[in-house]
Amino acid sequence: MIPFNLTSALAIYRREMARAFRTAFQSLIAPVLTTALYFVVFGSVIGTRMEPVGGVPYGAFIIPGLVMLTMLGETTSNASFGIYMPRFTGTIYELLSAPVGVAETLAGFVGAAMTKGLILAAIILLTARLFVDYTIADPLLAVIYIMLVAAAFALFGFILGIWADSFEKLGIIPVLVLTPLTFLGGTFYSIRDLPAPWDRIALANPIAFLVSGLRHAFYGTADVPFALSLGLTLGFLLACVIVIAVIFRTGWRLRE
Amino acid sequence: MAVSDPILSIRGLAKTYRGGTRALDGVDLDIRRGEIFALLGPNGAGKTTLIGAVCGLVRPSAGSIHAFGLDLARDWRAARARIGLVPQELATDMFETVWRAVSYSQGLFGRRRDPERLEAILKALSLWDKKDAQIRALSGGMKRRVLIAKALAHEPDLLFLDEPTAGVDVELRKGMWEQIAALKQRGVTIILTTHYIEEAELMADRVGIIRGGRILMVDDKEAMMERLGTTEAVIDLAAPLAAMPAALGRFHLELSPDRTRLVYRGGTGAGGGRAEVARLTQALVQAGIAYVSLDIRDSSLEDIFVDLLGREEAA
Question: Is B108 within 8 Å of A86 when comparing Cβ atoms?
């Protein structure tokens, strides 16, 4: 039997969820406001003058990208803070002295991140509904894909929070890497519509695959085959799990 | 110094930090079930590293640790579920309430929710009326008690207290000692480090002295005081003595340079010295030497500690 302390993992999960609700304004209200602003500007004002993209009205077209935009940033920051703060304040001693290993820690942290990702996506989609009409072609696939991406970026944020040794470094990746890549990853346009050679260069951006993957679940149209998006997401998830397992094994930045 | 059926057994434990500092240098230590063990040592002696190695905060460079007969390198999950740690630093989740913080600790260490148990712990630590307060709003002494409550939430059999009364005022320190005594009553084995040697003298069953990452000595507190302790008596004479009378030759005596004071040093800290001083006063009377005052003092654990470290330094 694989040793696993379910009670411990649940304790971590509950605590992470409680942390999100304690900072509800930052984690939940702020995304609503940001999304609403995007829809006012791009959906209602500019969107009405735009051609449909791949048969999807522009206002609806940008929804998956906006979900991705907010979710990647939020999930990464939230998870990175979740592990960085205990390191910073010293409360990490409790986690390190507890009967939990990488399995319980990740189950708790990542499970909470997936839940939060779904809640966040639901809030964005409901907000979007106020501005544009849309129907999701494959809701189940969308839910699964959102959970996968949330899990992957929670793990990524976890690594970031262990790597960072200052608040500045903690903020750098979401702001300087994730947001620009999401903007350039086809949130507001189809990368197939880009002039050569930019349509190919854009494919070097992994986030383009994520946006495309979610758009496939929403509308059945995508810039790249869905299998590629799914494969990349799973590959990234697996890579993060391996990195974290190594971190726990070696104690890097956790145990002296 | 092997102990039969120890609750904690450490062998050849070494830790060299990156950068080359050797914090632990081959520590062997056995802890008896149910005792209070005080680990004494100056700053940087390796006390916190030793605790960290047992509790999973520090990865040992060499050596083995067994707790409850479990090898910590292998069965750490089972072992850690029965170990509690109160760290030296006041590291708390400031925005949590006391109640949530202790509930989290209970779950994290694999215990099912048990509000009654938590209530009992908080009441015993006089934190019950603060259970819904955010930890940041509490005083330093209360924060330390929150840390103790968190460490007790899973009812550990082995509890580490790293400087439990550092920065705690006298009144609270006494309360803390009562708490520690009550835990011992319940069968919890306690290992504490402290700067207050008075604390070790008052609480501990056994004392270990650590310095430079090595255990210099481990012994029962009484045995240590008996073996290393001394009695000192200062006798002020009514008139200066020309020379030390032959009748007093069998005592460990010194005559002060102004010849008005006799200083006795000898015996053990466990009463032998006092008996000898009584015989000395009789000898003084028989020899017709009058004295005006007599002051007797047994050396404390602190004297022993300072003396031992001083000798180590000289060696």
Answer: no
The alpha carbons of chain B give a radius of gyration, in whole angstroms, of: 24
For residue B87, is the peptide bond before it cis, meaning its omega torsion is within 30 degrees of 0? no
Spatial distance between the Cα atoms of A74 and A221, rounded to a whole number of angstroms: 26
ipTM: 0.88
Q: Does residue A20 form part of some domain?
A: yes
Domain annotation covers residue A204: yes
A143: which 2 tokens? 């839910």
Across B260-265, average pLDDT: 88
Per the structure, how many domains does chain A have?
1
Q: Find out whether B264 and B231 touch, Cβ atoms under 8 Å.
A: yes
A255 found inside a domain: no
Q: What is the assigned CATH class of domain B230-298?
A: alpha beta
Ordered strands of the B8-16 beta sheet: B22-31, B8-16, B62-67, B70-71
Cα–Cα distance, B82 to B129 (Å, whole number): 28
Interface of A with B (CB under 8 A): 3, 5, 7-8, 10-12, 14-15, 18, 22, 86, 89-91, 93-101, 251, 255-256
Residue A1 forms part of a structural domain: no
Between chains, do B59 and A251 touch, taking CB under 8 Å as contact?
A: yes
Across the A:B interface, residue pairs with CB atoms under 8 Å apart total: 78
Q: Which residue of B has its CA nearest to A86?
A: B93
Architecture category of domain B8-226 in CATH: 3-Layer(aba) Sandwich (3.40)
Q: pTM for this one?
A: 0.85
pLDDT of residue B102: 97
Q: Considering only alpha carbons, which residue of chain A is nearest residue B90?
A: A90
| B206-211 vs B36-40, strand pairing mode | parallel
Strand pairing class (B158-162; B83-86): parallel
Half-sphere exposure of B1 (CA within 13 A, CB side): 15
**Angle, helix A30-38 to helix A102-129, in steps of 10 degrees:** 40
B192 vs B265 pLDDT, higher one: B192
Domain residue limits at A196: 6-250
